[in-house]
Amino acid sequence: MKSVSKKLLSVVLAVLMVVSCAAVAFAADADFDYSTNEDGSYAVAGLLVDDIGEDGVLTLPVQQPDDGETYVSVDEEAFMYDGDTSSVLNQIVSVIVPANIKNVGPSAFEGLPNLTSVTFKGDIVLENRAFANCPALESVTFEGDVTLNDEVFADCASLGNISVNEDAKILTSRSALETTKWFMTWVNDKQPDYIMLGTTLVAYKGTDTEKTIPLNVTVIGAGAFMGNGNIEKIVISKYVNTIGKEAFKNCSALKEVVYSDYGEITTVGAAAFENTPYFDDFEGEFFTVGTILVKYKGDNAKAYVRIPNTITEIADDAFLGNYLISEDGYTFVISSITVPASVKKFGENCFALAQLDNGKYYSPRLYAYAGTAVIDELKKAGYLVSVCKNPADVNGDSKVDVNDARLALRIAVKLDLADDSTFGAADINGDGKVTVDDARTILRLAVNLENYTAKDLLLMPTTDFEILQAYTKAVKTVARYNAGYTKTVSSKVTDKNVNAQHKNRLLKLVNTGAVNTSAKFEPDTQAAIDNLTYCSLISTKTVKNAYCSVDENDNYVVTIVLKDVNDAKLTFDNDTYTEAANEINKVMPVVSGTDFYNAFYNSKDGFGKNWFQNWVPDNDKRTTPCVRYYSLDYTEPTVKATFDRETFKLSSVELGVNYKFSIDGRMDGIDISGKFFKVGDATFTRHDTIAYSDFTF
Fold first, then answer.
1. Distance between CA atoms of residues 293 and 274, nearest Å
2. What is the pTM of this model?
3. Residue 355 class from Cβ within 10 Å (0-12 exposed, 13-18 middle, 19+ buried)?
4. Which of these, 203, 208, 122, 207, lies nearest to 169 by C-alpha position?
5. β-pairing, 304-306 with 336-339?
6. CA distances to 273, 383, 485, 500 from 504, in Å
7. Least confident span in 15-19, 378-382, 567-571, 638-642
């Protein structure tokens, strides 16, 4: 704030006040010093009198007396007590903050020795230590929405009564309250595990390894779980919309976070999950919650960063810390960040790479695509932004033709160099490099071989990450609408390489692993679509390939092909099988995952359970009447989904997997093993498909 303090007016008013010997409740607007904020609005900057009346009530002003404009804030340290016993601040017993005041600055009322109560008449934001170290403060009343930043009421040991409206939105930091009597009363109470202020979870004090956030929680406060070394899994309920900064920071055991598919997180604070296994093991460049980019985790040596076009919000400090350190200090390798048209909200310092020694923040060049609204939004947020070439318009002539494809090809084979803007236009699939495939896509667009145009690429998912996010959103839409559907199941067994002598024995094995023993495979998929809605599609670790196209009905058609999983041996301990199955289930919980194992083990004729119960060591292998093990190879498990590009409502989704069995052991007293027969004699393949269609929303 830029101060415009009225010192001369202060002297005159002080004299007048002494002469009048007023002894009434203090409320005169002219008795306050003021300053102007950067936007021209007024802030209360302090007192201009040396007496506030016998009752000690300080009512902050509504209007600036010179021109009648409304005050909107209180300056930093405006009423901070410095220990002078003769100070007028020593008289303050109660503070009333009218509804026009929306923000109280850092340490604005810190240290007031005799302050006992504060009332806020409207929505309020209290900055760091705004009322810290007020030893006599007993009660605070909030009549509107509340935001409490760090240490707002630090060392207010007498503060035991905090009143909030039932429907108020409350954002608070744990450190704002944890040294108050109110907080300690919660701590000393054996139940419950959660410390609550309204519908905000202020702190968790339990020791459980797994917790589900209660349904009455809408906000997980800043630092609520910070430093908890016990919690391993947290389930976020559907009513939570906000996760505060550092909410789970330094939770050393936290490795799994499950979000309700029926809810939506709209805000995530800086460092909310940092220094947890969940954050550290998160695959890919972009750590996200829903469509919020919480943290960029990419390679610090990557010069060009393109934010995915499924991101709608960038959290505070999202890129902070992305630099290299040399002997001379900071080295900033990231030279540009391209912001897609999808982003609507920008957090504080969200593009800053570092806070420099002088306290200022360093950000790289920001680019946005020509003609998109995000350019104006970035400017409103105070950022300098350059216009970059649109996808596929490599030469920047505002059209996509063969010349663009030719230039992209020259860049791909390193016959030409590209600047950031040209590179971004040529890198169609957003993988951080320009390849022949990118040039081919541009050529297809130029000659109208696709059902979409270059302009569609501004919002169309093209990277693996974007495609997974789009698919996740489509699946969650099914859950939110509780959509009905039609399910079909099919299976095809290929046995041409199976030794004829053992064909029936092998088919008995494969069909025993199903719900029934008929030749047709019928997977155990009760409420399979419900399982589908709970799968996590954020990690790209298991993706072999993913691509999106547009059909003749203008729908998105996404195809996700997973990496092969080889030699997932189904043995007595089941460890390796479960690991492989979990890799598959990260993207598609098809029957080929753990459901197949359970179906096999619990098969109706008891064969599967008997197989495991009669397992014997290798040295007694020839005497066992059952199969020793079979290995199971998954080949290109595939998801294909069609959904409306505007509403993300699914019209169909198909899950398919190929898998190959290799038998090693004995069955019905007969050796069945690749060791005793030609390669392939003891193997067969099967393709299973589950398709959902005709969704009713």
1. 14
2. 0.80
3. middle
4. 122
5. parallel
6. 53, 70, 36, 8
7. 15-19
